[in-house]
Write a structure and sequence with these properties.
The chain has 211 residues and is an alpha/beta fold. The chain has 5 helices and 12 strands.
Length: 211
């Protein structure tokens, strides 16, 4: 049975939160899973907007690519694309904190200690959960190093998601991983260790069933 053509917004990569023009706080996300999902969705005939933080990856041909660096930029890009999409898949590793102030000039090294004042970033997924329309579906990712299922289920519930994909830090920067998937009414399903391209194709098939 052929599935309807969907408009997907997929976020990828790790955001950068700048201390000054050259230094930033970030994380180890490679963007591989987000890019693999974009490719799998395009192969399945869907329309893809890929909102991507900096990565070393080649962008998938056929995707509408929106390049961002910071969590604020990613929030604005998601906000702009959200109302017109059927599914938002938040794969990006968005920084949880950002510097309270960014210096307009490069900070010089001093002999004294440097203390950073960090403030929470916007929660893009929670915003989408509050603003989604009845036809829209939200898919979130949970990277947890302890209490994987409990923490992922809490995220699924709190952020009003339609699907959560959980994994561990072992998935960062590698080409293959194990994934655990849950919908609000379903049981956990495990996608055994496989290449991220294969995991992405399986996830897109599951997302098609959601809509």
């Amino acid at each position: 049975m052929a599935h309807q053509k969907l408009k997907l917004v997929i976020t990828a990569g790790g955001t950068r939160e700048y201390l000054d023009p050259v230094r930033f706080i970030s994380n180890a996300s490679s963007g591989q899973m987000g890019y693999a999902l974009a490719r799998a969705a395009l192969r399945a005939g869907h329309t893809v907007t890929l909102i991507t933080a900096p990565t070393a990856l080649k962008p998938p041909q056929g995707a509408n690519r929106v390049s961002v660096r910071t969590s604020d930029q990613m929030f604005h890009a998601v906000k702009e694309a959200f109302s017109d999409c059927d599914v938002l898949i938040m794969v990006a590793a968005v920084s949880d904190y950002k510097p309270a102030q960014t210096s307009p000039v490069k900070l010089k090294k001093q002999k004294s200690e440097l203390t950073l004042h960090l403030v929470p970033t916007r929660d893009i997924l929670a915003w989408a959960g509050r603003h989604k329309q009845s036809f829209q579906r939200l898919v979130g990712f949970a990277l947890e190093d302890r209490d994987l299922f409990a923490n992922a289920e809490e995220k699924l519930r709190k952020k009003r998601l339609d699907m959560i994909v959980a994994n561990t830090p072992e998935a960062i920067g590698v080409g293959a991983s194990v994934l655990h998937v849950k919908t609000p009414d379903g049981n956990w399903q495990t996608l055994k260790h496989a290449a991220k391209s294969r995991q992405a194709a399986a996830l897109i098939a599951m997302i098609e069933q959601l809509v």
